[in-house]
Design brief:
The structure is a homodimer. With about 190 residues, the first copy, chain A, is mainly alpha-helical. The first copy, chain A, has a domain of about 130 residues: Tetracycline Repressor, domain 2 (Orthogonal Bundle). The first copy, chain A, contains ten helices and no strands. In chain A, helix 5 packs antiparallel against helix 10. The first copy, chain A, is elongated, with a radius of gyration of 18 Å. At the A-B interface, helix 1, helix 6, helix 8, helix 9 and helix 10 of A face helix 1, helix 6, helix 8, helix 9 and helix 10 of B. The first copy, chain A, binds a DNA duplex (18 and 18 nucleotides) through helix 3.
DNA sequence: GTCTATAGATCGATAGAC
DNA sequence: GTCTATCGATCTATAGAC
């Protein structure tokens, strides 16, 4: 039966939000202890390698979420168009309709790309590859499917940046709608 | 006549590269002293408010570059299509064909958005507004011009993220070419 | 203007009691 | 498992000689 006290697993989402706010090097252990309510002793008990291991746990958690809610529907939906629709719905949900940034995308910039290179690379290559396959099953040619997938994944990232720069989540919502139209219309050419 | 010793103005580009590598909070003064060869005394002489003033100087420098090399051609070219072409050339040059990140975009994420909010917002709103105007002069309707401009600016940011996540600058180059085609083709509809 | 020396705070991480 | 106390390193910023 689940215990009341926090387990390692329960802390990870909160760690994710903290890293999203301050970045990796901008996040201090004191901030983490304050926000989680856990002392350093507990934190180092859960994550013996400290801050780096906490960030890796968050990235793994993100990867699992996308595998379940984004990649699996793209792969398993019999109608590829339905899979793509589910992808856009999951993306909109995950990024709180533009109010939440993509931690993996943010980690791709700066130094953090090198510190977490494998996980950062895997996240984006899984996404583009899975989406490419879905677009091909929906009738697009190899090259067009690959290009469209790259466009969509990149545009989602860029829309998050732009929305946050303007402090206007609607920028993201609008972009997502246009991308979805393009993905579906493109498949009917 | 120009002096041999570094002036404030000469340090700024190097500061920009350091911030691009480590981010704002990840950049330490000791890294700056090593890379610039200047002691803390000199640095605080040029930038009395320390690291924050250095970052602001870099953002102002970026704004000036884009005003001259991106926004002015978009505004002043008699043929709007030529202005757009010049924009894409300048963007490709500025981001070293995908090997350099956008510091303003990176600052839009995390906390730094709030610390440098005005400059971050101004950079992107200038860009989208100027590009929107050029697209309208090229025959697009108000709404379509605005949406296309937003798409292009966001996609450039996203392509930089994606390219870096894959450690493959060609992702950026390909995206830029597709965007340019879209911008020009779109104007002939 | 440029340097060294150093203040004072905070960093990540560890030790050890309970 | 969770806490407090604390280590040594590093941080930003300042002071003051030259």
């Amino acid at each position: 039966m689940p215990r009341e006290i926090a387990e390692r697993h329960d802390v990870i989402p909160m760690l994710g939000e903290i890293f999203r706010e301050h970045g990796f090097s901008g996040t201090s252990l004191s901030e983490i202890t304050h926000r989680t309510g856990l002392g350093k002793g507990s934190l180092y008990h859960f994550f013996p390698n400290g801050k780096k291991e906490m960030a890796e746990a968050v990235l793994d958690d993100v990867a699992t979420w996308f595998e379940t809610n984004v990649f699996a529907p793209l792969r398993k939906s019999k109608d590829p168009e339905l899979g793509i629709k589910k992808m856009f719905e999951a993306v909109d949900r995950y990024f709180y309709s533009g109010k939440r940034i993509c931690l993996v995308g943010a980690f791709a910039l700066y130094n953090t790309r090198d510190q977490f290179g494998t996980k950062v690379n895997a996240y984006f290559s899984s996404w583009t590859k899975t989406l490419t396959a879905a677009l091909k099953r929906n009738g697009l040619g190899t090259r067009e499917a690959r290009e469209t997938a790259e466009d969509i994944v990149a545009s989602i990232q860029g829309a998050l940046v732009l929305a946050r720069s303007q402090d206007d989540p609607m920028v993201f919502t609008r972009a997502l709608k246009r991308l979805q139209n393009r993905a579906v219309v493109g498949s009917h050419e």
